[in-house]
Design brief:
With 398 residues, the protein is an all-alpha fold. It has a domain of 261 residues. It is globular and about 65 Å long.
């Protein structure tokens, strides 16, 4: 008996140690508690199901298509020398790279700026145009509006980059350092490889079926009736799958600092397409669930409709979008986009956030060229305020 108690105590201490070492596990544990509670179960099941079927499924499909099309794109392109000699081409290239969903294009431009191949205005252009992972979410759920905002960001980025170069010159704040191997993708450890393989398998199996169910729902067809299953079956299945995706995200890493909380997990150099799709989709899903539950539980527990509350602060919402955009990482930006999709904040706030935010690209930019990164971020905020409030006064003021 004493030995059994000692074993139980040891297992309990191991569990506590694991829980303390990986703070991400708090997220699936809290979600499970809300699901088990009879008070919040129905609300949370509906929220998780919507997040999985109507957001994560489309995001995963968009990511898979994007990674498939860009897998063979040579980021160390042959026209690097041409770029170094053509200022207009530099700005155009950087605006285009920033307009690509995700943060990879911005990281490439910042690296080329440090190497002397691109101008400081190119950094401003790419950070202004970049929307980060929030672009995947917006394009997957509101494609027409997403394309409009991405195109607007690229245009504003081009103009900003050109004007900044005219003002400061192409070599402004360029650091005298070399890009080292530390900026290369991480090597895969066995643990990371196994956890990544599990995430990859999850979306490899579910990508097509989840997309089909999502499309059925988007066309306002009752999937439960169509497949002759009990009412609520697909909602329950979506909630379970969403929770499991959150658990996979939690097990794939731990929160050690701000960056590890708001950025998608770093990929190993041998990471395949589905693993990249899985890691980014699950990261976006976690932040979307957080945003949806923030809205739904606030209304449920406090009886406060956030959309009504924010209506009284309409003049400040575009500024809020811009200010949140200044925070490094994609997490806060996904939160703003989720609130926009939910109808809590207007499109002017989304425009301001999309133009001002730099996504995950700001972290390597600060590491490689801190002064340039900070100044470029400040410069990206100026057109963000202008664009957001121009839209607000032209189209949203009654």
């Amino acid at each position: 008996m004493q030995v059994s108690l000692r074993k139980l105590s040891h297992l309990g201490s191991l569990g506590s140690s694991l829980f303390l070492q990986n703070r991400r596990l708090v997220v699936p544990v809290v979600l499970l508690a809300l699901l088990l509670s009879s008070v919040t179960r129905e609300l949370v099941v509906g929220t998780l199901a919507d997040a999985f079927w109507q957001v994560a499924s489309y995001v995963a499909a968009t990511l898979a298509l994007f990674h498939f099309l860009t897998e063979h794109f040579d980021r160390k392109s042959q026209f690097t020398k041409t770029l170094a000699q053509n200022h207009i081409l530099q700005i155009s290239f950087s605006s285009f790279m920033g307009a690509l969903p995700g943060c990879g294009g911005a990281i490439v431009v910042v690296t080329q700026y440090v190497r002397g191949n691109l101008s400081f205005g190119s950094v401003v252009a790419v950070l202004t145009a970049t929307m980060g992972d929030a672009a995947f979410l917006l394009l997957a759920t509101r494609p027409s509006e997403g394309l409009m905002i991405v195109a607007l960001g690229a245009s504003v980025g081009w103009i900003s980059g050109y004007l900044v170069d005219r003002l400061h010159g192409v070599n402004f704040l360029r650091p005298d350092i070399k890009v080292t191997a530390s900026n290369q993708p991480l090597k895969d450890s066995n643990a990371n490889s196994k956890r990544g393989a599990l995430q990859s398998l999850f979306w490899k199996v579910l990508l097509l079926p989840s997309l089909i169910i999502a499309l059925i729902g988007s066309f306002q067809v009752d999937a439960n009736a169509l497949f002759h299953v009990p009412q609520g079956a697909f909602e329950f299945a979506g909630a379970v799958l969403a929770w499991f995706a959150v658990l996979l995200w939690a097990m794939n890493g731990e929160i050690t600092d701000y960056q590890s909380a708001v950025c998608e997990d770093k990929k190993g150099k041998n990471t395949d397409i589905f693993q990249r799709v899985a890691q980014d989709t699950n990261f976006i899903l976690v932040w979307v669930i957080g945003a949806f539950l923030l809205f739904e539980l606030t209304v449920f527990w406090l009886g406060i409709d956030l959309s009504t509350v924010f209506t009284g602060w309409a003049l400040l919402l575009p500024a809020m979008g811009v200010i949140v955009g200044l925070l490094p990482g994609c997490g806060p930006q996904i939160l703003v986009t989720s609130l926009y999709i939910s109808g809590v904040v207007p499109i002017s706030a989304q425009i301001g956030n999309a133009i001002s935010n730099d996504g995950d690209a700001l972290f390597p930019a600060i590491a490689l060229a801190p002064k340039a990164a900070i100044v470029a971020t400040i410069y990206s905020a100026i057109p963000a305020f202008v664009a957001a409030y121009t839209y607000f006064f032209l189209f949203e003021v009654a």
